[in-house]
Amino acid sequence: MPLPEKIISELSEDKPNVPGWSWRIFMFSLFVLIITFAFYVGLEYGFKSYLNSRINKLDSELKKINESISIDDQNKLILFYSQLENIKKIFSNRKSMVPLFSWLERNTLSGVSFNKFNFNSLNNQLNLGGLANKKEDATNQVLVFQSKPEVENITLNNLSFSQDKWQFDLMITFKKSLFDSNEQ
Q: What are the tens digits of pLDDT across the range 119-170?
């Protein structure tokens, strides 16, 4: 079946271009360009000059402040700041003794007391002088300390009876983990 004449004539005719679409795109692009140019000009000549004037004003204020402080005072301030930084460095590198005292408190037997305490933080070595009611208390204390995983080595240097008490000296070397795991 052939196509009707009306459809053939409509297909063969050229459609006229719809005016306005290209003009609208052009106007939108021009609007975006003008807005962009206005922002650029505003930033380049308005905001940039404002920032430069603020920088110059702050520089002049800083120069006045620097001139008002004498060189001697500046050197004193630098020295004080240096001392503060050194103290900060010392405190950040120090070992906390809290874990050691907590460990001693947890692991000391009831019949034992300590009367001498000397800790060397460079090699984690503790020298203790103690008193025990019985000889067994002193030896059991050594065994308790020796059984703890934080202790690397323990040495009983002296065990003697004096004034109704057993006196002893211990040298305990701790593993570094005692101080690392419990530091605050």
A: 988 888 999 999 999 999 999 999 999 999 989 999 998 899 988 999 999 9
Are the beta carbons of 128 and 109 closer than 8 angstroms? no
Give all domains of the chain, ordered by start, each with its CATH number. 23-94 (no CATH), 98-180 (3.30.1360.100)
**What string of DSSP letters covers 28-52?**
HHHHHHHHHHHHHHIIIIIIHHHHH
Do 130 and 167 touch, CB atoms closer than 8 A?
yes
Nearest to 179 by CA among 116, 108, 125, 118: 125
70 vs 77: CA distance, rounded Å: 11
Q: How many residues does the chain have?
A: 184
CA atoms within 13 A on the CB side of 40: 6
The 10 Å Cβ neighbour count of residue 121 is: 13
Report d(CA 127, CA 169) in Å as an integer: 7
pTM: 0.49
